[in-house]
Structure formats: structure tokens, C-alpha cells
Amino acid sequence: MGSCAVSRPAPAHHRQYAPRSPDPSGRPTPEGRADEFGGPAESHPEEAAHRAPFRPTGAGTMKLTTITNVSVDGVMQGLGLADEDRRGGFERGGWALPLVDEETMTRLGEVYGRADAFLFGRRTYEIFAASWGAMAGPEDNPVAAPLHARPKYVVSKTLTDPGWAHTTVLAGDPAAAVRELKERMPGELQVHGSGQLVRRLAAEGLIDEMLLLTYPVIVGQGTRLFPADGPDGALELVDSRATPGGVTWQVYRPAGRPRYATEVPPRTS
User: Fold this and answer.
1) Which of 1, 56, 121, 229 supports an S-S bond with 36, CB 3.0-4.6 Å?
2) Counting runs of H as helices and runs of E as strands, what totals does the chain give?
3) If DSSP codes are grouped into helix, strand and coil, which group holds residue 196?
């Protein structure tokens, strides 16, 4: 749901960051499956060899960062091209691509470049695998290069044969699996898109930092990042900037529970 980088061909001035033609070797791409959570499957046994028993969360754990593209009204569905995600009768796909400027793509390349590993929900993983994962010559692209070279983890109960190298499907309860992953690896674990997974991670208190890229558009329909009725949380704004094209970047860290006004002002007659 809502791949975070442009996952389909971009306008000419963004082409250095956009996926090129599929790999001529005919590398298979994952088939569509149901839902995002649970299920053991590994495409590379060496990834499983590094698994360690669950340990309670403590200092020094891997930083988990979510990176999400949203409209002003919070929509994250179908930002790439019109046919990227039509679930629920969504007909306004491709709303972000015309607004992506050069600075946004440069900064996204920097964000991907600092990741030590990636975590996906199943749908976003399949979108990425069919585009960035099928790119020929990924080492020359600042988004594709880290995606290809670094470990990728997918939370899914239905994906059994991931076709993208260095992919591990996390087993068991998703919250426990992510806690274990954070405890046994250093650096930064990035979640791009993956709305259903992000909502679960937020509810479990597993997100250390949130990067929101807000585009100057009201989409008016589609899946929002957060549901209309869900857990609340305060946020600390640690960075904010805007690109020349009007895309705003906000970096937040969780700050406990929100404070609500408790006093009712006196009514005037």
C-alpha cells in the first residue's frame, strides 16, 4: 500500500531515481496474495542463520523509522501511477508523481542510503519487487542500490517464496518478530509505505521516528495513514523543511500520550 519512493517510471527530470526496464534475465516477481502479517519463509538461508531468541527491548536497539508519502488529507494509497492500487474503488492514483521535484528525489536517495535494513508489509514489498527489484543495473541508482544490497524483511502470512534477493519473511506474531529484529541488529531499520504494518507498529509502540512527506494536494478518497478511530499519541517535531515544489518533510519522534484540555471555560450569557 503506497510505496514510498516513486515505484514506476517518473518524468524525465526524475529518471535517474526511477526504475528502468525489467531485468532481461526474466527474474520472477512475487504474485499477489492476501494479507501482511505472520508466516515463516526465507529466500536466503544465511538470513535465518542470524536469528536470535527474543530479548526485551532496551537501550541500543535498532532504530525503526517509518517513511510515508501522504496527501494533505492523509491519503497514502496509489501515489505512483493510476493503476498502482485500485482497491476499494480508488480512482485517483498517481497523485504524488506530478509533484515530485528534484530536491525530493535527492533527499529520498539520502534516506534510502542510510538504511541498514528494510521492513515491508506484503503489498508494498510486491510493488517494490516488481519495480526496483526488476531494475537492470541497480548499483547506479541511489534508491535501488541499497534496496538490492541490504537485508529486506517482509511481515506476511501468505508470502512463501519471495523472489527478491536478501529477503526474509518474518515468522510468528509481527510485533514479537519486529522486536526481535530490532534487538539483534544495529543501525536503522526503515519501513517504506506499508500502511497496515505502520499502524500495527504504532499501536505496539515500536516506531522510533516517523518521516512524513506531505504533498500539496487533497485527494479526497483512499486509504489514510491512520484510521478514524485508533490509539492516540503525542509527537515531538525534530525537523521540518519544504522543497521548492511544495513537498514538506516532517520528522517526528513519539512523545508519550497527548495532553488534553480538561477545564471547560465559563459560558457567557
Assistant:
1) 121
2) 6, 9
3) helix
Read out DSSP for 102-166?
HHHHHHHHHHHHH-SEEEEEHHHHHHHHHHGGGBSSGGGSTTHHHHHHS-EEEE-SS--S--STT
Taking the C-alpha atoms of residue 119 and residue 237, their distance in angstroms, rounded to an integer, is 23
Q: Which residues pair with 169 in a beta bridge?
A: 41, 154
**How much is the pLDDT for 133?**
87
Q: Yes or no: say if 168 and 151 are a contact pair by the CB < 8 Å rule.
A: yes
pLDDT (tens digit, 9 = 90+) per residue, 119-133? Answer: 999 889 998 998 888
C-alpha cell at 248: 514538506
What is the Cα–Cα distance from 58 to 38, expressed in whole angstroms?
A: 24
- The predicted model scores a pTM of 0.76
- With bands split at pLDDT 50, 70 and 90, how would you rate the model's confidence at 19? very low
Q: Could you tell me which residues come within 8 angstroms of residue 65 by beta carbon, excluding any fewer than 6 positions away?
A: 188, 189, 190, 191, 207, 208, 209, 210, 211
Output the CA torsion sign for 70, 72, 74, 80: negative
